[in-house]
Amino acid sequence: MRNQSMAVSCRALLQEAENFIYQYGGELGVPSAELEARIAQVKAELEATGTYTHTSEELAYGAKLAWRNSNRCIGRLFWESLIVQDARAAATEEEIADAVFRHIDYATNGGKILPTITIFAPSADAERPRIRIWNEQLIRYAGYRQADGTVIGDPVSAELTATCEGLGWRGAGTAFDVLPLVIQADGRPPRWFEVPRDSVLEVPLVHPDLPSFGELGLRWYAVPFVSGMRLEIGGLHYTAAPFNGWYMGTEIGARNLADPFRYDMLPKLAALMGLDTSREATLWRDRALVEMNVAVLHSFKAKGVTIVDHHTASKQFALFAEKERQRGRTPTGRWSWLIPPLSPATTGVFHTRYDDTEKKPNYFYQPAPLGG
């Protein structure tokens, strides 16, 4: 029965591999004879080992295709510019951490952010990963849950913060402590590694017209390094493949700092602005939300850190969609994710509908590790 199950699994993996290799070859103009030879090679490897290995070229193009196919991402105009770091040879936790830190330094690039992905060894079975990074993002602020239920810092990080403390890490207890990197490899217990302070570029937030804004003491890290998703290419599952682009301002100003279940700063900003918060009809939330986003965009640009506003991002996505049509492909997208959380009706994506078909290669959510 086990041999039969393995045979079925290998056939399914071969089908996924063939689909990807034909797409890869078709888009890059690889001669058909080379494609057939490559598929024969993959089939032989599968029969011998139960899995196969992507070439460096296949890995790089597959990661780019996965970005192009990411229906939730508004920034796909730049999919072809993704820089792919091949770290499949990293085996120990120290080697993995070193590769991650190199990624952070390289992609941050002094604020001129470079879209980058670092890909670690894959698994043939997504449910039995060889490597996991427990952090959802490589850089994120800790959340310290207090006895009364409140949280100092970022509430979304409260569970991972407690896990890190259980592993022996101790933060300073402020609202903006950077969590350590937590890595698990080959079934060994997870280990934590402090992210080097000089690798973490942060932006203190100020407002161009509200001097008192600085009293809020807000800051945010420069680069959104997504590290909890699974990259699937040709049936192989890269369960550790951290990647980054750059922020759209509303991700910080309208979500991270504004959501009631995150930093919940709108009431404090409204008070600084002298707004009437006694009733919703004054639209104090909306007015504070706009100024929070003004502060984020202003601060990032003043520090020379790459960021995009939601109006520009919407226009960039429209250009991406048009380029896809010109190349004979149907642009895909999930409308509920593409519309920005601030003034969505003023952007083009709000008034457009997209095909939400999920294509592969792609990035997929995966269950969080225990405590992650």
Q: Kindly report the average pLDDT value.
A: 96
How many helices? The count is 10
Percent helix, as a range, is 25-40%
Shape: globular
Give the N-to-C terminal Cα separation: 35 Å
Low-pLDDT sequence parts: none
Q: Main sheet?
A: 4 strands, mixed
Beta strand count: 16
Structural class: alpha+beta
Radius of gyration from CA coordinates: 22 Å
The portion of residues forming beta strands comes to 5-15%
List the strand order in the largest sheet.
1-2-13-10
| SSE pattern | HHHEHEEEEHEEEEEEEEEHHHEHHE
Could you explain the architecture of this structure?
There is one protein chain. Helix 1 (2-28) packs antiparallel against helix 2, helix 6 (249-256) packs across helix 8 (284-302) and helix 7 crosses helix 8. The strands form six sheets. The protein has a four-stranded mixed sheet with strand order 1-2-13-10, with helices on both faces. The protein is of the alpha+beta class. It has ten helices and 16 strands. The radius of gyration is 22 Å and the shape is globular. A hairpin with a 2-residue loop joins strand 11 and strand 12. The mean pLDDT is 96.
Quick overview of this protein structure:
The chain has helices at 2-28, 32-49, 56-68, 93-108, 158-166, 249-256, 266-273, 284-302, 310-326, 335-338; strands spanning 83-86, 116-119, 131-133, 143-145, 151-153, 181-185, 191-193, 202-204, 219-221, 225-226, 229-233, 236-238, 243-244, 247-248, 307-308, 362-365. With 372 residues, the chain is α+β, with helices and mostly antiparallel strands.
